[in-house]
Amino acid sequence: MTRAVDASSFLGQWPFRPSWLAQAEALVAAAREQGIAACLVAPTAALLVDDPSAANAALCRVAERWPELRPVAMWNPSMPNAAAVVSAAAESGAAAVKLAPNYHRYELDPVALGPALDALERSGLVACIQLRVEDRRQARLLCPDVAIDAALSLAQARPAIRWMLCGARTNELHAAAERVDAAGNVWLGLSNADGLACLEALAGTVRPDRLLFATHMPFFYPQAARFKLVESDLAADVREALLWRNACELFGLDVAPQEGGRDG
Amino acid sequence: MFPLPYPVIDIHTHVRSPEGADELVARGARLGITRFGVSAVFVGGDDPTPEQCRQGNDCVLAARDRQPEAVLPFCYVNPRHTAEALAELDRCIAGHGMVGVKLWIAVKAFDDRTVAVARRAAEHGVPVLHHAWYKVVDGRGEESTPADIAELGRRVPEATIIMAHLLGGGQRGIADIAPCPNVMADCCGGEPEVGRMEEAVAALGPERVLYGSDAAGRSFATQLAKVLGALLSDEAKRLILSGNAHRILSLGTAP
To answer: Which of A188, A251, B115, B251 is the most exposed place for a label (fewest CB within 10 A)?
Structure first.
């Protein structure tokens, strides 16, 4: 099994949909079983509060015990402490920051968020935007999805920041291909890609060096991300890029690959 | 992991053309899925005419002709046109050996017209696969809820009803159908959410849960992960992925 980097997951229980993968021990065990050497996790608890600082600090304390867990700090750029949260994330060695504008209730307006984005740009951290956490058709907490066009426009307005879009669906990923290609600073997570042989189709329309393996644990079974690789016929170099190489380059990780196989 | 020690049956797939069966077979083989319940709901939108249903069913029959060992054809009808729907069931099941009935969102599951279709399916000895969902937003047409499916199950106890999309029904949906022993559920549609399969099996028992993908709109992979990733016994997984479908489609003893 080729080693993988999970570019987008969460740690902690979502109060509306209990998951037995929510805590670190179970999540790491599941990651190991799927050959995931590094798992970029953001704190679930931070989605439901304006200031993510406490949840970020708690995540860092847990991650110290598990080498596979690479903390991603939740970040609310509309808060007055946005610059301080970025500094804390950088100092703690976070792999990235993650934005959830729908849960934190702000628009992806490059002008309004300008000072906060300046601080982020200075930090050099990757900015991940979570487009959705759960299927809104069944969501207990009514929360609109983030429009991928708005996320792409923000990335276009801030070309010196590297952006990852998380939770995009297959149709959104295909539709984003041209803008991703033109922007040069956007990567796309594959956790919510679906449809028969979806990865094969996506690798044909989106630059493969912009696609990132992602599981969306603890919401999703991590097997889903792995099995999609089995279902699709991908060239070895593309498979390797999706599974770990792109993430290592984007997030500056030092995850050694293992020999590949048809099991993804 | 693959292939599994037994052939997997996907109870819930769709094709838009006969050639779609080739894609199902080729992709399924990579994950050990060898047989596919196939229907054509891509005809006529939410409320198809009898002619559109017939065209869709002919497409599925042509798909079976291309992949006779793999395609398990389901007859798609619109109960709103009751007489034509019953005639189509007779044509497709008695005349062409279709093995199930597919109902979608044209008419509610508790409607007398749907009941008539389910009774005819039971006379033919085939199950009825019926769409259901509890949606907070984006509901469509005369979409049925799991409670509606349970009502159908109670009104036609001689029929085997498969409620599609158990994740879409959620905990309430599972509870709705639990008292109806002739109502099963498939796991297709929705995201591969952790814990939902375990809840379904705990409430219904593994004998009443079926693997389905809703391919080609969904991948086999994401839906298979719901079963293989779940905290279930190997025997429960075998039933869900293979044994239960063998039983209700009368395919003989599961290997």
So the answer is: B251
Q: Cα A123 to chain center, whole Å?
A: 18
Residue-wise pLDDT for B91-110, tens only, equals: 999 999 999 999 999 999 99
Q: Is residue B132 part of a domain?
A: yes
Range of the domain at B213: 8-248
pLDDT (tens digit per residue) in A52-70: 999 999 999 999 999 999 9
d(CA A53, CA A59): 10
Q: What percent of chain A has pLDDT over 90?
A: 91
Partner A contacted by B17 (CB < 8 A) = no
Closest CA to A196 of B37, B13, B240, B57: B13
Angle between helices A223-231 and B220-228 (to 10 degrees): 140
Total of domains in chain B: 1
Residues of A with CB below 8 A from B200's CB?
A: none
Question: Do the domain assignments include residue B187?
Answer: yes
Could you read off the pLDDT of A130-185 as tens digits, one per residue?
999 999 998 888 899 999 999 999 999 999 999 999 999 999 999 999 999 999 99
Residues in B 112-141 with any Cβ partner in A closer than 8 A: 133-138
**Residue A111 burial (CB < 10 Å; 0-12/13-18/19+)?**
exposed
Q: Helix-strand-coil percent breakdown of chain A, rounded to 5?
A: 40, 15, 45
- The average confidence (pLDDT) of chain A is 95
Which strands, in side-by-side order, build the sheet including A69-74? A4-11, A36-43, A69-74, A96-99, A126-130, A163-166, A186-189, A211-212
* A interface test, pick of B174, B187, B222 with most A CB neighbours within 10 Å: B222
Which of these, A130, A132, A104, A140, lies nearest to A16 by C-alpha position?
A: A140
Per the DSSP assignment, residues forming a β-bridge with B22 are none
Mean residue pLDDT across chain B: 96
Strand A126-130 to strand B209-210: parallel, antiparallel, or no bridges (unpaired)?
A: unpaired
Domains, in order of start, for chain A: 4-251 (3.20.20.140)
CB proximity B2 to A under 8 Å: yes
Q: CATH number for the domain including B20?
A: 3.20.20.140
Residues in chain B within 8 Å Cβ distance of A222: 225, 229
Determine, yes or no, domain membership for B2: no
